[in-house]
């Protein structure tokens, strides 16, 4: 009989609902396949992730999954894993390295692309004319940088589109709401704002509340577009308060397990990048999507 | 020498706690008691240890330095920008980073002394500034690809019995040794303890308060800069959000190591042991591998509490009622 | 008494027109002071007269507002203690200002450690520390933290440090406040030796006997102003007191009428049986009756302080029992004692007595308020009344009751502490060295106050190193030696000679040779 | 004893700084002082400052007294998360508002009790004692919410966050009430005096008969309660408990507010109103940064710069001409020796 596969998963933390869902799914998918999953929570710190990978190597696991908190800084620890012949899979974020052989594959979406999808939807919706306020993620974090980059590409293509204000909402509801409140005041009671683009759904939910409290109608007076696809944004969409979200699936581990099992079985190396879909959702399907998701989270 | 025994008691107790903790872990996990784990413990906590040495000096002098984590982050970014975007050789970049970090610390010390502002606040502002400067340089994480980095990373002292001491680990051990000498065999060290014992008395005894204050924050900044270099070696990158929250980790290590936050009492070696205890807690949790994010946090808190209780308990048992250090 | 070296032309230290003001207080107002080579010069004045301020301004702790200071004819203006030390001025400031966390040797050589190969030579430092302490008969473990030793030992160490540093001028601000007679004698011997080497010594004290014993000249300050300078030999005691107070002092404290003997037959207010604590004080019996003063006499470290701390519950007794009003009580802490109507002025007022940043008013009402509990605040008006009453009664020198107590001079802080307990109208007041650092005028007042309180039925338990003082007011003296109560003198038996005899019986007294006790914060005497 | 530090001149730097920051905001954004009524609720940037400043102001009220005893409470952010998590989860499970509020406040109280016992009885240094709950507390909050943002729809609970009373937003009302109750509690009783006495010199206070352990525990309990209220507000405001982020790093803001308000970290004299002013200065600064349209990369530097200026204004060195005892070097900066010296082994 086969020995149970042991996988060490260095998770970033649980800084958002999406992240917690990713962990939860990873566990569920491991159970389905009879894999023994060891999760180490890095509390948002890269140094903790590196420590975790080192200690996975010391423990002699069969594979290591990393959801890297930053793109850089993995070379030396991954080298150790490679020397110990332990395959590494990256989940939901890519890393920057000169030596791609350091990891087996990466299961991620393209965060720049997500920004593009959101931007394209907005451009289409408004005929390329829109004064956008942007709620950025945590300054310096890679999704914030990339989602801004992708969106900016579309803005650059549409002369009628303009980002009139941009500030960091730290990926949280509370900050999203606070920042949106000031945006509304700064832009003539919100009259100058055509849409809000939030780097994640949580900030969008906060922004929706701020818009309502200012006496405006979210989804109508000010369009709301965001990224992630957590249940709450589908709920808001079904109530007509949000307009679009780009999904980032929390099931990153599933494809990774499959690739790993295949690799262990007949040594078939998976493609270097297993890209997950960045699907756009709009209010028409919101209700059903909400029902489908609310338990996965 | 019962007097000496009593003086070093907190240190002995802390070390005993570390050893007991390690043995317990080893009993639970078969792979734990290996040289690899020991080596990892030293390497992974090198930057923390180096920073904590500086923090020990600051706390001994009766102050506190909240800026260290941010200075580490800033240093990594500065190095990355100089080396990758400026095309510098790493060695002059290291020098510049050390000077910048040390100067930054000294400036905070100057503000603290001249304006008689609480160190907590001045260094908190310093933390904002250092992080902010990092953001201004670049918000991206920048990989450092200079070949020297690879060479430095491969450098290690290997022992026949299996222990491997990486460059960061060696650096930390060196810093700890130098710090012990500085604390106990120089006038500067004596002045630090004096300042922390009682600032007014120290002044009345002729301790150069201004110079010492500036120097100790300068030193803390310098060591944070060195830790930044180590961190950039460790990750091979510069990132403005690197090492967030490290200030609290270092303060915890210093205090677990038996140094009084009110200043004047404590040992550098104790801090070193404190860092290892924290590293041990981390390693234990990773080895366990079943803890969710929240249980991890709870476990860290509980273990911290247990270590502190153990320490207090051992002190009381071994020293009787008089051994408990005063606390304010 | 004349100096043995010929006085050079310029005086050693010439201070002219020195002024220093603090907010609301002109602490020094154009003071002149001259110190000659090979002279011991007393600097005298009431509490708050400005003595300590003069010293601190002279040595650069405070920056002067005006005036000049010349050392051997050359103008100096040190900007800090470090600089003063470099000019060979060694100072012991009022209250011990050493560092409890450093070892004795480190305290002695802080800033001037012997170096070898660029590093501190700890061995040499230890050896030299022992040598420096040797003239004082102090053979202690110089590597032990200073905080382990008693206030007295710390004081001697501070003196030794200053003496070792002062090649020209030695300044001592109330160095004898916590020393006993033998230690004072040793100190004086050292001072005379230094004088014979041409060193000038400034000596601040409230003990007039000591002034007449060692000093060549006297400078008197009052309210920050110079009253005058005299040769000791030419100034009779009464004139000196008049110079200090600005008025005649009523006849010095006399032996008071001890009242009717029936006091002894009254039931005791508090009684302790076999009371004691391991590694602290041997079990003792002690009865205290209303209206009587019980004094505890003994050498430094004989266990007096520890006895009264047990009685007040500051330390917890681990054996014996205590009864108050015939009922057995358990003293779990000072709060219990306060509720029973006890009060306690501790020996170390800076650390255990005053609450430095709070005002004089708040310090005075603190114990009363604590006894009433936090739910029943004393109205502000009433607080002010109480504070003002005691400020007048005890003549506490402060511009107003709202001044933070830490800004008062040492003696006035002591009076405010006394006021704190008097305000609670205690039934038993415990005073540990109550007259330490208090000037002659206040000294007499405090003794009179003690008499009056007893007449009103208050019981007092007093620790004092001044035997004359004890004899003056107490009718029962418990003598301690080596942490044991060895004798009790009553009524007619109470006299300085008898006390000394009781202290000295059996083991001959050896001057301070302390070693830190193992395993306890206290210390044993050998 | 004092609600604010005595003497108007001492408070000048704080009020001056607040006005200066508000004026700077007005220069950046001319409509800053414009206020109108929106759905029966005051609406405007100035109201935002008050409203958004409320949680930190609440924390600062509790923190002030902890700091006055020479302590510090790093766990307030975590306590906020716990109280919010409990409120949202219980509301979601259908409990009534009074039960929810009682449970949340009780959680805050328990947290405070735990901190207080560690500090007063086990004598662990406050920064470390409360660090334990800072780390573990957030874990407990996440345990309650299982790492998710637990949302609720109950308008009753939401009212605490975004409702209004006589047009004044509820968070502001709650802060004013908390301030008034706290001020009453310390000023109309002798608690304030005892807190200050314990903070300045614990040994002396104990010797004078002050029940120091009870004072210490009380102060941490009150701080826990204030944090629980703050947690309720932020949870009610976003109609969801974000255990991961609620109150994150707010302990630093609260400490900052207290210090900006002029209370010394070395304990002793404290000013409650001034701490609230400190919180408002910080929030006015944050709001100003949001309104200004600076790039977010500059937020921290701007914040640090303004802070340093505000604190410099209070520096004893620069305010020597103002009658404040701190000015008298070096006595004012003394801390009593804490050595295990003679008599020091016992409290
Ligand atoms: N740092 C200070 N700030 C404000 N006032 C001070 C300060 N130091 C001393 N004073 C005041 O200056 C005056 C002189 O005090 P000083 O300590 O010189 O008296 P002293 O003669 O040494 O008295 P004592 O015999 O009690 O020690 C007192 O009124 C005191 O309150
Ligand atoms: N509980 C205690 N813990 C630590 N040190 C103590 C304690 N009680 C007293 N001491 C210190 O130990 C020294 C010796 O105390 P003891 O009571 O034996 O002396 P004493 O007779 O009162 O003489 P002194 O004049 O030095 O106070 C004192 O100076 C005191 O400061
Ligand atoms: Mg004096
Ligand atoms: Mg005594």
Main features:
heterotetramer; A: 297 residues; alpha/beta; six-stranded parallel beta sheet; six-stranded mixed beta sheet; 10 helices; 12 strands; 43% helix; D: 347 residues; mainly alpha; two-stranded antiparallel ribbon; two-stranded antiparallel sheet; 13 helices; 64% helix; globular; disordered N terminus; disordered C terminus; binds adenosine-5'-triphosphate; binds magnesium ion; membrane (chain B)
Largest interface: B-D, 60 and 62 residues
Q: Summarize model confidence as the mean pLDDT of chain B.
A: 87
The portion of residues assigned to helices of chain D is 55-70%
Radius of gyration of chain D, in Å, reads: 20 Å
From the N-terminal CA to the C-terminal CA of chain D, the straight-line distance is 23 Å
Distance between the termini of chain B: 29 Å
**Number of alpha- plus pi-helical segments of chain B:** 15
Tally of DSSP β-strands of chain D:
6
Strand content of chain B: under 5%
Task: Indicate the overall shape of chain B.
Answer: globular
**Into which percent range does the helicity of residues of chain B fall?**
over 70%
What's the β-strand tally of chain B? 4
Please state the structural category of chain B: mainly alpha
- The residue ranges of chain D in which pLDDT falls below 50 over 5 or more consecutive positions are 1-9, 321-347
Order of helices and strands of chain B: HHHHHHHEHEEHHHHEHHH
Main sheet overview of chain B = 2 strands, antiparallel
Q: Reading side by side through the largest sheet of chain B, how are the strands ordered?
A: 1-4
Across the major sheet of chain D, the strand order is 1-2
Main location (chain D): membrane
Keywords (chain D): Cell membrane, Membrane, Transmembrane, Transmembrane helix
Membrane topology (chain D): Multi-pass membrane protein
Subcellular location (chain D): Cell membrane
What does this structure look like?
The complex is a heterotetramer of chains A (297), B (328), C (526) and D (347). Chain A is an alpha/beta fold and 297 residues long. Chain A has 10 helices and 12 strands. In chain A, helix 2 (46-59) packs parallel to helix 3. Chain C has 526 residues and is α/β, with parallel strands linked by helices. Chain C has 2 domains: 10-79 and 200-245, 3-Layer(aba) Sandwich (Rossmann fold); 262-521, P-loop containing nucleotide triphosphate hydrolases (Rossmann fold, 3-Layer(aba) Sandwich), CATH 3.40.50. Helices cover 33% and strands 25% of the residues of chain C. Chain C has 17 helices and 24 strands. In chain C, strand 4 and strand 5 form a beta hairpin. Chain D has a domain at 52-272. The chains are: A alpha/beta (297), B mainly alpha (328), C alpha/beta (526), D mainly alpha (347). The interface between B and C is medium-sized, with 34 and 35 residues. One adenosine-5'-triphosphate sits between chains C (150-152, 298, 300-306, 309, 315, 347, 463, 521-523) and D (342-343, 345-346). One adenosine-5'-triphosphate binds next to strand 2, helix 1 and helix 14 of chain C. Chain C: Keywords: ATP-binding, Cell membrane, Membrane, Nucleotide-binding, Repeat, Sugar transport, Translocase, Transport. Chain C: Residues 13-248, 253-507 form the ABC transporter domain. Chain C: One of its GO terms (cellular component) is plasma membrane.
């Amino acid at each position: 009989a086969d020995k149970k596969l042991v996988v060490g998963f260095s998770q970033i933390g649980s800084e958002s609902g999406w992240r917690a869902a990713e962990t939860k799914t990873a566990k569920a998918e491991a159970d389905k396949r009879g894999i023994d999953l060891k999760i180490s929570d890095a509390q948002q710190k890269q140094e903790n992730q590196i420590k975790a990978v080192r200690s996975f190597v010391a423990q002699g696991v069969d594979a290591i999954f990393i959801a890297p908190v930053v793109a850089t800084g993995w070379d030396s620890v991954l080298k150790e894993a490679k020397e110990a012949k332990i395959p590494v899979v990256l989940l939901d974020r890519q890393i920057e390295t000169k030596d791609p052989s350091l990891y087996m594959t990466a299961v991620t979406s393209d965060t720049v692309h997500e920004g593009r999808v959101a931007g394209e939807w907005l451009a289409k919706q408004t005929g390329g004319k829109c004064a956008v306020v942007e709620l950025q993620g945590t300054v310096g974090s890679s999704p914030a940088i990339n989602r801004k980059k992708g969106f900016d590409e579309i803005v650059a293509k549409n002369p009628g589109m303009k980002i009139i204000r941009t500030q960091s909402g730290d990926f949280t509801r509370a900050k999203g709401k606070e920042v949106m409140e000031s945006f509304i005041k700064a832009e003539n009671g919100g009259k100058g704002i055509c849409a809000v683009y939030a780097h994640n759904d949580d900030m969008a939910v906060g922004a929706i509340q701020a818009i309502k409290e200012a006496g405006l109608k979210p989804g109508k007076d000010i369009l709301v577009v965001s990224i992630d696809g957590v249940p709450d944004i589908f709920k808001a969409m079904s109530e007509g308060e949000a307009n679009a979200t780009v999904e980032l699936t929390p099931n990153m581990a599933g494809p990774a397990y499959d690739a790993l099992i295949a690799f262990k079985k007949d040594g078939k190396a998976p493609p270097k990048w297993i890209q997950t879909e960045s699907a756009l959702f709009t209010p028409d399907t919101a209700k059903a999507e909400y029902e489908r998701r609310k338990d996965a989270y | 020498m019962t007097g000496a025994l009593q003086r070093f008691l907190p240190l002995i107790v802390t070390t005993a706690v570390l050893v007991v903790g390690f043995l317990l872990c080893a009993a639970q996990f078969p792979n734990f008691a290996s040289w690899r784990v020991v080596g990892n413990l030293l390497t992974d906590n090198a930057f923390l240890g180096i920073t904590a040495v500086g923090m020990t000096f600051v706390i001994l002098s009766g102050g506190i330095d909240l800026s260290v984590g941010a200075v580490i982050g800033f240093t990594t970014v500065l190095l990355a920008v100089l080396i990758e975007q400026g095309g510098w050789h790493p060695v002059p970049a290291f020098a510049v980073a050390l000077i910048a970090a040390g100067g930054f610390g000294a400036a905070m010390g100057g503000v603290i002394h001249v304006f008689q502002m609480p160190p907590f606040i001045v260094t908190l502002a310093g933390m904002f500034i250092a992080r902010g400067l990092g953001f201004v340089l670049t918000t991206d994480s920048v990989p450092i690809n200079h070949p020297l980095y690879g060479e430095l990373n491969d450098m290690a002292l290997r022992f026949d019995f299996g222990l491997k001491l990486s460059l960061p680990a060696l650096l930390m051990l060196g810093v700890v040794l130098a710090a012990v000498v500085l604390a106990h065999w120089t006038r500067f060290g004596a002045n630090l303890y004096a300042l922390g014992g009682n600032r007014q008395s120290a002044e009345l005894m002729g301790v150069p308060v201004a110079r010492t204050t500036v120097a100790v924050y300068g030193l803390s900044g310098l060591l944070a800069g060195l830790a930044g270099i180590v961190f950039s070696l460790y990750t091979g990158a510069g990132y403005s959000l690197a090492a967030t929250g490290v200030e609290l980790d270092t303060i915890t290590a210093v205090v677990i190591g038996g140094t009084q936050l009110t200043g004047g009492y404590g040992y550098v070696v104790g801090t070193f042991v404190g860092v290892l205890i924290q590293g041990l807690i981390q390693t234990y949790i990773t080895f366990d591998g079943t803890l969710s994010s929240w249980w991890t946090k709870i476990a860290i808190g509980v273990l911290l509490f247990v270590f502190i209780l153990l320490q207090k308990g051992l002190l009381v048992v071994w020293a009787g009622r008089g051994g408990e250090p005063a606390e304010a | 008494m004349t100096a043995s070296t010929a006085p050079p032309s310029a005086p050693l230290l010439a201070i002219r027109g020195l002024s220093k003001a603090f907010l609301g207080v002109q602490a020094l107002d154009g003071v002149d002071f001259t110190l000659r080579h090979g002279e011991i010069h007393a600097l005298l004045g009431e509490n708050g007269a400005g003595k300590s301020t003069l010293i601190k301004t002279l040595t650069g702790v405070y920056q002067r507002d005006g005036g000049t200071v010349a050392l051997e004819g050359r103008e100096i203006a040190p900007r800090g203690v470090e600089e003063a030390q470099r000019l060979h001025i060694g100072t012991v400031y009022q209250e011990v200002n050493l560092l409890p966390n450093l070892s004795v040797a480190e305290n002695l050589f802080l800033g001037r450690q012997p170096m070898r190969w660029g590093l501190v030579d700890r061995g040499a430092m230890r050896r030299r520390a022992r040598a420096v302490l040797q003239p004082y008969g102090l053979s202690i473990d110089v590597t032990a933290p200073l905080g382990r030793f008693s206030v007295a030992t710390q004081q001697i160490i501070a003196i030794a440090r200053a003496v070792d540093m002062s090649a020209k001028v030695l300044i001592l601000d109330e160095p004898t406040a916590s020393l006993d007679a033998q230690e004072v004698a040793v100190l004086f011997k050292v001072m005379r030796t230094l004088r014979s080497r041409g060193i000038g010594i400034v000596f601040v004290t409230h003990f007039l006997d000591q002034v007449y014993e060692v000093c060549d000249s006297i400078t008197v300050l009052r309210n920050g102003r110079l009253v005058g300078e005299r040769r000791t030999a030419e100034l009779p005691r009464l004139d000196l007191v008049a110079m200090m107070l600005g008025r005649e002092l009523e006849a010095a404290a006399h032996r008071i009428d001890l009242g009717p003997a029936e006091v002894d037959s009254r039931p005791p207010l508090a009684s302790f049986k076999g009371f004691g604590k391991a590694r602290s004080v041997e079990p003792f019996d002690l009865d205290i009756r209303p209206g009587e003063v019980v004094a505890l006499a003994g050498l430094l470290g004989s266990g007096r302080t520890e006895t009264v701390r047990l009685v007040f519950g500051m330390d917890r007794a681990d054996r014996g029992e205590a009864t108050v009003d015939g009922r057995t009580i358990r003293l779990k802490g000072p709060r219990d004692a306060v509720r029973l109507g006890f009060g306690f002025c501790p020996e170390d007022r800076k650390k255990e007595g005053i609450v430095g940043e709070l005002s004089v008013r708040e310090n005075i009402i603190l114990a009363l308020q604590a006894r009433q509990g936090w739910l029943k605040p004393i109205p502000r008006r009433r607080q002010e009344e109480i504070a003002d009453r005691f400020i007048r009664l005890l003549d506490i020198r402060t511009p107003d009751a709202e001044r933070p107590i830490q800004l008062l001079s040492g003696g006035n802080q002591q009076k405010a502490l006394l006021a704190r307990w008097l305000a609670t109208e205690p039934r038993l007041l415990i005073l540990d060295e109550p007259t330490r650092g208090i000037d002659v005028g206040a000294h007499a007042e405090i003794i009179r106050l003690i008499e009056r309180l007893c007449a009103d039925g208050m019981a007092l338990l007093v620790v004092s190193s001044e035997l004359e003082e004890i004899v003056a007011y107490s009718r029962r003296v418990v003598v301690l030696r080596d942490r044991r109560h060895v004798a009790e003198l009553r009524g007619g038996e109470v006299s300085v000679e008898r006390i000394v005899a009781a202290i000295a019986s059996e083991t001959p007294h050896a001057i301070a040779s302390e070693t830190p006790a193992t395993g306890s914060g206290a210390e044993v005497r050998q | 004893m004092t609600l604010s530090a005595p003497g108007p001149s001492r408070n000048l730097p704080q009020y001056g700084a607040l006005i200066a920051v508000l004026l700077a905001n007005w220069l950046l954004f001319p409509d800053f002082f414009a206020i109108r009524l929106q759905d029966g609720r005051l609406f405007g940037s100035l109201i935002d400052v008050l409203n958004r400043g409320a949680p930190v102001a609440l924390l600062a009220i509790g923190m002030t007294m902890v700091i006055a005893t020479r302590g510090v409470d790093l766990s307030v952010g975590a306590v906020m998360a716990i109280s919010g998590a409990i409120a949202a989860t219980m509301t979601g499970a259908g409990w009534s508002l009074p039960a929810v509020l009682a449970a949340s406040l009780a959680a805050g109280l328990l947290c405070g009790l735990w901190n207080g016992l560690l500090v007063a009885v086990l004598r662990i240094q406050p920064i470390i004692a409360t660090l334990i709950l800072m780390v573990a507390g957030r874990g407990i909050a996440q345990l309650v919410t299982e790492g998710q943002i637990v949302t609720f729809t109950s308008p009753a609970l939401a009212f605490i966050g975004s409702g209004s009373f006589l047009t004044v937003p509820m968070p502001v009302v709650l802060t004013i009430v908390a301030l008034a109750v706290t001020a009453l509690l310390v000023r109309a009783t002798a608690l304030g005096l005892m807190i200050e006495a314990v903070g300045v010199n614990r040994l002396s206070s104990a010797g004078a008969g002050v029940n120091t352990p009870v004072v210490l525990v009380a102060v941490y309990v009150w701080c826990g309660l204030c944090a629980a209220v703050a947690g309720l507000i932020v949870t009610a405001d976003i109609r969801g408990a974000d255990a991961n982020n609620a109150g994150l790093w707010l302990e630093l803001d609260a400490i900052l507010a207290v210090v900006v308000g002029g209370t010394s970290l070395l304990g002793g004299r404290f000013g409650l109103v001034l701490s609230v002013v400190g919180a408002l200065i910080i929030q006015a600064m944050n709001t100003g940064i949001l309104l200004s349209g600076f790039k977010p990369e500059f937020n921290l530097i701007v914040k640090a710069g303004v802070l340093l200026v505000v604190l410099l204004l209070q520096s004893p060195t620069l305010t020597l001409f103002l009658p404040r005892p701190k000015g008298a070097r070096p006595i004012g900066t003394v801390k009593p020796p804490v050595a295990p010296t003679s008599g020091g082994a016992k409290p």
